[in-house]
Amino acid sequence: MSKISQKYLITIVGPTAIGKTALSIKLAQHFNSEIVSADSRQFFKEMEIGTAVPSKEELNAAKHHFIQHKSIKEPFNVGDFERDAISKIEELHHTNPVVVMVGGSGLYVKAVTEGLDYFPEVDSKIRTSLNLQFKTEGISPLQEQLKTLDPTAYNSIAIDNPKRVIRALEICIGTKKPYSSFLTNSEKIRPFKSIKIGLNADRSMIYDRINQRVDIMIENGLLEEAKALVPHKDLNALNTVGYKELFAHFEGDTTLDFAISEIKKNTRRFAKRQLTWFRKDDTISWFDFETDIDEIIHHINSKMQ
Fold first, then answer.
1. Where does 47-150 have alpha helices with state H?
2. Is 195 helix (H, G, I), strand (E, B) or coil?
3. Which of 63, 91, 210, 258 could make a disulfide contact with 254, Cβ separation 3.0–4.6 Å?
4. What is the 3-state secondary structure of 230-297?
């Protein structure tokens, strides 16, 4: 590799189970670089099997950052990640002009590559009240409330995601202004150039890979991992696919077979949402998940000219 003067962040995105980790390791090895994880589910040390944390072999193949570095009991949001990840990337750029970032959490990727919009602080009691309403009445009343208070946000955010709906509502209620009025759509200046690579496959292939991954998680002990986390099931970090379905099973609400089928179904839905998010970004260059690594490296090198 010839000497590179500009600093670059190569970001690998795509739906869950598509092979992002394997590609990121090959690229980190090629560029003699390190990996920043932007997978918000893999930050927590208590959640290993259900979040498909890279294996010990994968972690040894290239140095990773932001993998299981927090406890589920520690608050760590996207703003915290933006700050810490930018700091780590700048540190890594002191010794290597190329850093690799990988993850399927679209908002966390956006936070690092483009920056987040500023939202004022609001009374935490508002969120507590909205969370209680969601728990007792479901998401529909919250969606209707958002539709009334901020139709723009209602039509633009992931409306089936309770966290996103509650976040938008708390801003509307706490500031008496629409959530969408705080969205500036202006990118922050970053001290590096972003090169984004997306991995994709036919939907049937993605779904097959997801179903296989869930079966492997069950074989590897996901039930035992989830059972140990039952005392903490109300924590925000555990309100996620792979755990909440098993919590319902442990409480006697469902059979184990049904819980596993729900994990597969909800993971497939999650993958669909990931693709919807990433397809809105026209700076991503898409490749089939089986594309030869040399072709992807050639593309990246052409972006570095």
1. 56-61, 78-93, 106-113, 124-137, 140-149
2. strand
3. 258
4. HHHCCCHHHCCCCCHHHHHHHCCCCCHHHHHHHHHHHHHHHHHHHHHHHHCCCCEEEEECCCCHHHHH
The token duo for 61 is: 């193949």
What mean pLDDT is reported for the chain? 94
Angle, helix 256-279 to helix 203-219, in steps of 10 degrees: 140
Comparing CA positions, the residue from 280, 228, 251 lying closest to residue 48 is: 228
**Token match 């972006």: residue?**
303
Residue 99: how many other CB atoms lie within 10 Å: 25
Q: CA 195, 27, 242: angle at the middle one, nearest 5? A: 90
Residue 101: strand, helix, or coil = strand
Q: Nearest Cα to 162, choosing from 237, 106, 239, 110?
A: 239
Q: Report whether pLDDT(1) > 50.
A: no
Residue ranges of the binding site: 14-21
In 3D space, the residue among 25, 14, 16, 70 whose CA is nearest the CA of residue 217 turns out to be: 16
What domains does the chain contain, in order, with CATH numbers?
A: 8-116+186-303 (3.40.50.300), 124-182 (1.10.20.140)
Annotated binding site for ATP: which residue ranges? 14-21
Residue 295 clears pLDDT 80, i.e. is over it: yes
- Residues flagged as binding site for substrate: 16-21
Give the model confidence (pLDDT) of 60-71 as tens digits.
999 999 999 999
pLDDT of residue 188: 80
